[in-house]
């Protein structure tokens, strides 16, 4: 049935590439330090300062208060970042990709409702990814005022700070197209120096008071948390303590960019430097709590005060660079989250670039531009970092709670470790719930903004997923062999002019012998399209960087071809070039007759004819019998799709001959009033309502698609009686690599619907 041709002989072992991931190397360790730890690495700049401020200032920080606060910080980093994310979550990777959507893809078979926490967590993390660059860069620029020469230029004029912040954000987002590796190699040395600075300055101050090591005892932290005599803030102090681990979720999301081996190798060093710095700040507080001159300093920050005055300018400059770099962890993490959401059909297809030879390192131009504009809006809206900080961290607590729920499912249902799963969900669910409720105090002081952004992102996901479920109730795949005779007659029917020698349709299904009803409707019904040969092209992106191969089913003809084009993720997807090669190859193997040119500007006329590409867009017609709510969802989905571009750009067809054709979203038609033929009263007629069907792909489904099961069954039955070749059985996507998941979702880039 099928013939296999490869433009490049020899296919790499897919399984090996997936299991290996990004290997441990000195270069990637540097990239990891520059990309992954920016957010969590800058937390010592403000975490202990916030705790001290909410407890009444420097003079109120007694031994038990300082030791207790340090204990909470140390054990928060240990439990959430080290245990939950580094030791547990990073084991739950989807083809070496991390993040909440990668985790959901592993557990979605376990329960249909799990899509909801995945969507909530992903939306919250993306919202925080928008806020973090604005907060960190603004904070850094405002911190430069502590340096005399800089203050003489900036002064107290906040507008200058805003302009400088926007310029830096523009540079930062403009650099993203260079790729994670390039950025990591630029930022890596700076962050390495930064962590060494944290560890050394902390260690030098710890030497003055070794009693701070008592903070390693978790009992001291629990005592501080519940004893109001030493903790004036009560449980609400957790909102500030949580700042020490806000980068943990980004660490998990960035795993695909740098590889888990490099995170395992670097995290012990990073954690040691963080803890030493916190202990050093605590030792400085205990040594200086009775200094009257310090008690009057406004906005006192032990992070900078523990540095000798003659070195403080260097510390502020280094901190500024580190704060700017902190944005990188959230930006790259956002790319990973969106990429996984696209695979799960929670977001529309977008153009994804792979700047390096590692598939995990990606750049999504549209996401980059949206975050760019949103970050600038945040800076202009809040003006000052103190206003932004009120919104900081609330969304991440939501994401962490959702991740805990999914990890519980993973441990209990996938790994079958039921006891460990219960212990995990009770421990981390309780801890993160306390962090969440303490962070709610920030809601009216700026946290509402993060919630609004997360809600907007969740709304996009809901519309896209719900709209897809509705569309699938109206989509049916028909067997191509039932229509071969009609296609052959049309190709020889002189009543219709040739539209092209080669007519190409892009399709998002990977079955070898079926087609979406919309394509056949376009060729045979909407406007019969006569061509010498018809091609139905599906593009898949493999996990290997340089795959060039295709599979073709000719259905025993020399004019109908179903082609699956398999391209490596580093390969430029200019399908017109590859299709020309495929056609020439088919002619060389006598599967396609030569298409000699009669006219040409070239001396040597080619034997491959012209091409036209037909791109189909579904539209909702007024006659469709779809409820008002579902119709609104479909229209909103199509509006979102319009913003995200078209296959013409994704597949390099801008300069090709294109046909954009709009076909109705088939569905049961509304009952129409009968017309009466007044000149012939005895004859009445009516148009028989045309029903169409949908086939939901054989996947596990979710709560959105489950609601459409009844409609699906009804329309399947109608279609089997009304269309030629009524065999509307759903298909499993064609799997070529035996190690792929059953649904083949790891390597499929869907085309336009």
From TrEMBL:
Coiled coil, from the record: none
Cellular location(s): Cell membrane; Membrane
HAMAP family: Kup
UniProt family annotation: Belongs to the HAK/KUP transporter (TC 2.A.72) family.
Protein name: Probable potassium transport system protein Kup
Residue span of region Disordered: 674-695, 717-753
Keywords, alphabetical: Cell membrane, Ion transport, Membrane, Potassium, Potassium transport, Symport, Transmembrane, Transmembrane helix, Transport
K+ potassium transporter C-terminal domain ranges (all copies): 502-659
A GO molecular function held by the record: potassium ion transmembrane transporter activity
Function: Transport of potassium into the cell. Likely operates as a K(+):H(+) symporter.
Highest taxon of the lineage: Bacteria
Predominant localisation class: membrane
Catalyzed reactions: K(+)(in) + H(+)(in) = K(+)(out) + H(+)(out)
Entry GO CC: plasma membrane
Residues covered by the K+ potassium transporter integral membrane domain: 29-476
Compositional bias (Acidic residues): 736-753
TM stretches of this protein: 21-46, 66-87, 113-137, 157-174, 186-210, 230-252, 264-287, 313-342, 362-384, 390-408, 420-440, 446-464
Lipid bilayer topology: Multi-pass membrane protein
């Amino acid at each position: 049935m099928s013939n296999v041709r490869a433009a490049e002989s020899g296919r790499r072992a897919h399984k090996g590439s997936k299991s290996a991931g990004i290997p441990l190397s000195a270069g990637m360790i540097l990239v990891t330090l520059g990309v992954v730890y920016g957010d969590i690495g800058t937390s010592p700049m403000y975490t202990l300062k916030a705790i001290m401020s909410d407890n009444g200032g420097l003079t109120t920080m007694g031994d038990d208060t300082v030791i207790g606060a340090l204990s909470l910080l140390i054990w928060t980093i240990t439990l959430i970042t080290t245990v939950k994310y580094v030791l547990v979550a990073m084991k739950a990777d989807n083809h070496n990709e991390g993040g909440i959507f990668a985790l959901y893809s592993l557990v979605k078979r376990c329960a249909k409702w799990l899509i909801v926490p995945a969507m909530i967590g992903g939306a919250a993390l993306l919202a925080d990814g928008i806020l973090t660059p604005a907060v960190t860069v603004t904070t850094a620029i405002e911190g430069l005022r502590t340096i005399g020469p800089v203050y003489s230029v900036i002064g107290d004029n906040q507008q200058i700070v805003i302009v400088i912040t926007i310029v830096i954000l523009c540079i930062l987002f403009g650099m993203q197209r260079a790729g994670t590796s390039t950025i990591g190699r630029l930022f890596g040395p700076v962050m390495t120096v930064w962590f060494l600075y944290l560890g050394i300055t902390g260690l030098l101050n710890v030497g003055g008071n070794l009693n701070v090591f008592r903070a390693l005892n978790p009992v001291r932290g629990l005592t501080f948390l519940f004893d109001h005599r030493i903790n004036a803030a009560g449980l609400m102090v957790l909102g500030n303590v949580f700042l020490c681990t806000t980068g943990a979720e980004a660490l998990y999301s960035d795993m695909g960019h740098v590889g888990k081996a490099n995170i395992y190798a670097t995290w012990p060093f990073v954690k040691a430097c963080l803890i030493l710095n916190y202990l050093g700040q605590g030792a400085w507080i205990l040594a200086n709590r009775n200094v009257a001159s310090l008690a009057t300093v406004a906005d006192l920050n032990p992070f900078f005060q523990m540095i000798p005055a003659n070195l403080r300018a260097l510390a502020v400059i280094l901190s500024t660079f580190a704060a700017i770099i902190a944005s990188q962890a959230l930006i790259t993490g956002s790319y990973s989250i969106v990429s996984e959401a696209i695979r799960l059909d929670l977001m529309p297809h977008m153009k994804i670039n792979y700047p390096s030879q590692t598939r995990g390192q990606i750049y999504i131009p549209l996401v980059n531009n949206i975050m760019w504009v949103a970050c600038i809006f945040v800076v202009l809206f809040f003006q000052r970092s103190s206003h932004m900080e009120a919104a900081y961290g609330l969304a991440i607590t939501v994401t962490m709670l959702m991740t805990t729920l999914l990890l519980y499912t993973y441990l209990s249902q996938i790994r079958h470790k039921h006891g460990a799963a219960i212990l995990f969900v009770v421990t981390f669910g309780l801890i993160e719930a306390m962090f969440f409720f303490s962070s709610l105090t920030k809601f009216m002081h700026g946290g509402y903004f993060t919630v609004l952004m997360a809600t907007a992102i969740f709304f996009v996901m809901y519309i896209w997923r719900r709209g897809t479920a509705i569309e699938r109730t109206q989509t049916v795949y028909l067997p191509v062999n039932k229509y071969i005779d009609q296609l052959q007659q049309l190709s020889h029917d002189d009543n219709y002019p040739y539209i092209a020698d080669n007519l190409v349709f892009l399709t998002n299904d990977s079955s070898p012998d079926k087609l979406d009803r919309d394509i056949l409707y376009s060729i045979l019904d909407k406007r019969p399209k006569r061509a010498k040969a018809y091609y139905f092209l599906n593009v898949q992106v493999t996990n290997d960087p340089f795959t060039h191969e295709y599979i073709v089913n000719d259905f025993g003809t020399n004019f109908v071809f179903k082609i699956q084009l398999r391209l490596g993720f580093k390969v430029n997807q200019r399908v017109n070039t590859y299709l020309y090669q495929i056609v020439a190859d088919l002619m060389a193997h006598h599967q396609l007759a030569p298409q000699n040119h009669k006219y040409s500007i070239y001396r040597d006329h080619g034997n491959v004819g012209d091409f036209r590409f037909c791109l189909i867009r579904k539209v909702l017609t007024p006659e469709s019998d779809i409820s008002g709510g579902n119709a609104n969802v479909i229209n909103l989905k199509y509006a979102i799709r319009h913003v995200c571009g078209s296959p013409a750009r994704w597949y390099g067809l801008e300069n090709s001959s294109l046909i954009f054709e709009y076909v109705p979203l088939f569905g049961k038609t509304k009952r129409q009033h009968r017309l009466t033929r007044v000149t012939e009263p005895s004859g009445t007629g009516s148009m028989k309502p045309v029903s169409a069907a949908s086939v939901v792909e054989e996947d596990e489904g979710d709560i959105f698609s489950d609601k459409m099961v009844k409609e699906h069954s009804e329309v399947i039955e109608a279609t089997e009686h009304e269309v030629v070749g009524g065999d509307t059985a759903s298909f499993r996507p064609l799997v070529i690599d035996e190690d792929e998941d059953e649904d083949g979702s790891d390597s499929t880039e869907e085309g336009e619907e």
